[in-house]
Amino acid sequence: MKKSLAILTAFVPLLCAAQKPNFTITGKIGKLNAPARVYFDYSSDGVNHTDSADLKDGNFTFKGYVKGYAAVRMGLDHTGMGKEHTIYHGDVNYFYFKAGEHVKISSPDSIANAKFSGSKAYDEYMAYNAFIGGTIMDLTKGANAAFSKGTPEQQKDTAFFKEIDRDFREKLGRRAGKQIQFAKENPRSWYSIVALSEAAGMQMDVATIRPIYNAIDEKLRNTDMGRELAMRMDAVALTAAGVEAPLFTQNDINGSPISLKDFRGKTVLLEFWASWCSPCRAENPNLRAQYAKYKEKGFEILGVSLDENKTKWKQAIDADGLPWIHISDLKGWNNAVGRLYGVRAVPANFLIDANGKIIASNLRGEALNAKLEELFGSN
Predict the structure, then answer these.
(1) pLDDT for 300-310, tens place per residue?
(2) Who contacts 367 (Cβ-Cβ below 8 Å, separation ≥6)?
(3) What is the reported pLDDT for 16?
C-alpha cells in the first residue's frame, strides 16, 4: 500500500508540471480602460476554454495551457455591451496559435485590425489564408460591402441581391478548391487538416476527401481535428438513408441518461440545434406544430443541443415551449452525438423510422411537413 502511494505521489509533480501555462497572449489596444473588456475563447485538442479580461490603459494578458494548436475567437467589447453582442456584432478576430508561443497583439483601436507578433502559427495561418483566398469572414465582409455600395433602389432589387449572393458562392467554391489543393500540397502542415475539414463541408465527397486525408502526416491525423474529420467521413455511410441509425446514450436536462434505442417503435426526428442558433430557433414553431399534430400517431422529437451553457440551453427550451426530450453533454461542437452523426452545422436533423432506420436527413419547413404527412397522413 505504501509503495502504491509512493508511486502515485511521484506522479503528482509531473502532472502539475504538465499543466503549467505554456503560452501567453499580451495585448495593447490604444488606451482603453474598463468597461472595455476582451473575451478570449479557444479550443485545443477537443477541449474548449473561455476567459476574459478588463483592459487597463489598453493592456491585457492571458495565460494558459494548450496541447498543440489552438483555434481562437477573440472579441473586444469597447463599451460594456456584453459578450454575446461583442461576438456577433462587435470587434472580433479569429486566429490560431500553438503551445510554447508568446503572442503579442497591438492596435491603436481594434482587435479586428490588430498586428500579431511572436507566433509562427499565426504567420502560417496568414500565409494559408492568402493562398486560399481569405477567411469566410473576409468573403462575408466583401459581400456586405458590395451590398452597401448599391443604391437604395438596388438594395430593394432581388436581382441585385442574387448577383451578390452568386458572386459570394462562386468565391466560396473557388476557396474550397484551393483548400483541397493546399491539403494535397502540404501534407505536413497543420492547416492541411484545417483546410480539408472545412472544404469537406456537410455533404462531403468521401471518395475525393479520404485519399487526401490518408496522405496527411499521421501525427496530424491523430489530433482531435484529424480524428473528428475521420468520424465525419465514416458518418456519411453510417447516416445514409436506409441504414440503421447509430445508437447512443446521452443525459437529458435533468441528468438522466436517454438512449436512442428507447424510441424504437416510434418515428423520431433527431434534431441538432443550439440556443444561440437563430435559424434553429426560427424553425422551432414549426417543429412544435408538427409534434402536436403527429405525437398521438407515434411521432417523437429528440433534441440534441450543441450548447455549452446549461442555463441558456434550458432558457431556450422554456422560451420556445419545446415539450419533447432534450439531451446534451454541453461540449458544444464536440458533442459526442454530433460527432457520431458528422454534424458540423445547425440546424441539422435525421428522420428515423420505427425500426431505427434513417428515412431522410436535413428536412426543414415544408419539406419536413410533407414527409410527415406522407408517413402519417393528414389529420
Answers:
(1) 999 999 999 99
(2) none
(3) 38
> Looking at the DSSP assignment, which residues form a beta bridge with residue 302?
270, 325
Element at 170 (helix H, strand E): helix 158-185
* CATH hierarchy code of domain 249-376: 3.40.30.10
Give, as one character, the DSSP assignment of residue 65. Answer: -
121-to-190, 275, 353 alpha-carbon distances in Å: 9, 32, 47
Pairing of strands 348-352, 358-361: antiparallel
Instruction: At 154, list the grid cell.
Output: 438596388
- Rounded CA-CA distance 73/49 in Å is 11
- How is the chain split into domains, by residue range? 20-118, 138-238, 249-376
- Which CATH entry fits the domain spanning 20-118: 3.40.1350, 2.70.50, 2.60.40, 2.50.20? 2.60.40
Mean pLDDT of 354-372: 96
Alpha-carbon gap, residue 377 to 365, rounded angstroms: 17
Phi, psi of 258 (to 5 degrees): -120, 130
Instruction: Find all residues with CB under 8 Å of 348, minimum gap 6, and list them.
Output: 202, 272, 341, 361, 362
> What is the spatial distance between Cα 369 and Cα 356, in angstroms, rounded to a whole number?
20
Residue 210: beta bridge partners? Answer: none
Distance of CA 319 to the CA centre of its chain: 23
Q: Which has more confidence, 12 or 244?
A: 244
- Which residues share a beta bridge with 38? 53, 76
Is there a contact between 245 and 270 (Cβ–Cβ < 8 Å)?
yes
pLDDT at 18 over 60: no
Q: What's the pLDDT tens digit per position in 59-95?
A: 999 999 999 999 999 999 999 999 989 988 889 999 9
Number of DSSP helices (H) and strands (E) in the chain, helices first: 14, 15
Look up residue 297 and give its DSSP letter: G
Characterize 93-129 residue by residue with b for buried, 16 or more Cβ atoms within 10 angstroms of its Cβ, and e for exposed. Answer: bebbbbbebebbbebeebbbebebebbebbebbeebe
Q: What is the 3-state secondary structure (H, E, C) of 258-295?
A: EEHHHHCCCEEEEEEECCCCHHHHHHHHHHHHHHHHHH
Preceding peptide of 187 cis, ω within 30°: no
